Amino acid sequence: MNNERDDTTWESAMSRDFDARVRDLNEAPLDLTSVKGKAMTIRRNRRMAVAGGVLAAAAVIIPVAAIAAGNGTTVHTEPPVATSDPGPTPTEAVDTGGVEYVQGDTWHRADGTEVTLPHDYDSAVLWDGQLVGTRYDGEVYSTADVVDGQGQVVDSFDTTGAVAVNDADTTLAWVGTDGQVMTRWDGGQVSMGQVDLAAAGETIAWTVGAVTGGPDCHEAVDGCVVYLNSGLGEGSTAYDSHGIQDSPVPGALKFFDADEDGQVTALTEVADDHTCSELVIPGADPAWGPTCDHQVQQISPDGKYVAGLPSYFDGLGPTTISVIDAADGHVTGQFAPEGGFIGSWAWSGDGRLVFDTYDGASWHLMAMQPDGTIDELTDPVKGSADAGSPFTMVAG
Predict the structure, then answer these.
(1) Tell me, what's the pLDDT at 96?
(2) What pLDDT does 250 receive?
(3) Predicted local distance difference test score (pLDDT) of residue 163
């Protein structure tokens, strides 16, 4: 292998990652305390965490964006369909532990089949039986590919960041590079409104954090709510199908997740040595929240648990990951890699918290039951921390 070429590639990636982190400096306290996305899981940000100390000294971005509310403007109702070429056939089923994940360019499906993907993806969700992978191509924004079970890209669209999907995997949401807050389902799509993407430098003004409702997001049908995160130091907000723009969590700085029962997790305070977050449960007054002991992030499929991260962390990533009881805030399970860190995480359909972790020599893909029982899902992959994990969690 050509070492000079490898060094050039690595330096290019590091430069690209640094640019990406600098343009998100509005979230510098957030990015140093959480991995970006729902599953917020972008490998290039993890690689760039090596330069985390440099980011702390960068300038503060002045908010310059304004929001214009919309009211369900239909964009089109016939999303592109697959081409006639069936593409490669998925391989024979193998045991994946019932978990969906991507390793390199291979999509490991919960049914055990493997699908070869056309690209490596930084983040991925399941939507309507397809994988929607987001990839960064060196520009400010990203490209999302809709990939079918044969590995064929049936549609692509530009997005400001990772996409989100509802609990039923039927409704997709993202912020388009024209500022439209988009939702899509099988048979149609609609804009929930528009945001102003004007920002200093290469800062990304708005990204999607979560979506609930659907599948059809028209006001007269099912309706949806899209939760948006500001990249300009402004409060996060949400749009619904009635064209109403408001935050369900006053003072929310970042939405981590939301579910169909109305539960929402959000970051509410960032300090020099800690963060505080909140799990909002409609109609309830949980005695344990808000909390500054943990970051409460993704909600489990049954709504009974949340993923917990340390209140504050920097460097390569969190050194612990926890399962927290949503009813009382007690930690029911926890994993702490000795001398290592956690890369990215997402809940699987069977209610386990899936994550990748680095131990100083190899990357591991793990799954934790709510009671703390740990399973390793595949063979370890030798590698370095700065090169990034070979695994991408698939949310949904």
Answers:
(1) 62
(2) 85
(3) 98
Query: In whole angstroms, what is the distance from residue 275 CA to residue 273 CA?
Result: 7
b (16+ CB within 10 A) / e for 229-265: bbbbbbebbbbbbeeebebbbeebbbbbbbbeeebbb
CA distances (Å), 75 to each of 188, 238, 372, in order?
9, 20, 45
Q: What are phi and psi of 112, to 5 degrees?
A: 95, -10
* pLDDT mean over 340-347: 96
CA dist 25 and 232 (Å) reads: 8
Check residue 94 and report its DSSP letter.
-
Residues 6+ apart with CB under 8 A from 290: 268, 276, 277, 278
Q: How confident is the model at residue 49 (pLDDT cuts 50, 70, 90)?
A: very low
Say if CB 357 and CB 342 are below 8 A apart: yes
Percent of the chain scored above 70 by pLDDT?
A: 75
Residues 32, 35, 38, 44: is their CA dihedral positive or negative?
positive
pLDDT at 13 over 70: no
- Using the predicted structure, report yes or no on whether residue 279 has a pLDDT greater than 70: yes
Question: Which pLDDT score, from 0 to 100, does residue 44 have?
Answer: 36
Nearest-5° Cα angle at 308, 307 to 309: 130
Q: Which domains does the chain have, with CATH numbers?
A: 3-395 (2.130.10)
Average pLDDT over residues 228-237: 92
Strand, helix or coil for residue 288: coil
> How far apart (Å, rounded) are the C-alpha atoms in residues 110 and 350?
10
Report the first-to-last Cα separation within the chain, whole angstroms. Answer: 38
Confirm if 245 and 230 have CB atoms less than 8 A apart: no
Q: Are 367 and 348 in contact (CB under 8 A)?
A: yes
pLDDT (tens digit, 9 = 90+) per residue, 155-189?
Answer: 999 999 999 999 999 999 999 999 999 999 999 99
Beta-carbon contacts of residue 282 (< 8 Å; ≥ 6 apart): 261, 262, 263
- 102 within 8 A of 394, measured Cβ to Cβ: yes
Task: Please give the C-alpha separations between residue 67 and each of 97, 153, 164, 238, in angstroms, as whole numbers.
Answer: 44, 33, 20, 11
Tally of residues, the chain: 396
